[in-house]
Amino acid sequence: MKRRLAREIIVQSLYQMEMNDVDSAEAVEMLIEEASEENETERVITDEIELKAYVVEHVNGVWEHKVAIDDMLEHYLKGWQMSRLSRVDRQILRLATFEMVFGNDVPAKVAVNEAIDLAKHFGTDDSGKFVNGVLGKMIQEIDRLKADL
């Protein structure tokens, strides 16, 4: 399974859920089907099952911890409010925070680097720098954040 593709689908699913008020299963199913059609020649059914499980776990995890994640992010958004962020940047920051604080399958630095790449891919010209700045501050205090849970 390609985790980069999984993260792209996670961000898109979170975006769909926020924009269109759909549940996670509907958002994930639609986006995985789309990704499978685009990558039909290189995708086998076992990869799809593994990808879907990973995506669903992370989408549901982010959504379940959204209030706590947003509270953490508010602390690091100097001069910004979550509601004022672009929807794409908001979902990327939420995913990275979930991976760093609540997850245990990737190192925090990997989550930050992946978030920066996603921001450059999906966001504006300044999104990568913005995401890097916010998560760079957060990663310095990651042990404290985890201990506070």
UniProtKB/TrEMBL annotation:
SUPFAM superfamilies: NusB-like. Residues 6-139 form the NusB/RsmB/TIM44 domain. It comes from the Bacteria. Pfam families: NusB (PF01029). InterPro entries: NusB-like_sf, NusB_fam, NusB_RsmB_TIM44. Keywords: RNA-binding, Transcription, Transcription antitermination, Transcription regulation. HAMAP family: NusB. Belongs to the NusB family. Involved in transcription antitermination. Required for transcription of ribosomal RNA (rRNA) genes. Binds specifically to the boxA antiterminator sequence of the ribosomal RNA (rrn) operons. This is Transcription antitermination protein NusB. It comes from Paenibacillus borealis. The lineage of its organism: Bacteria, Bacillati, Bacillota, Bacilli, Bacillales.
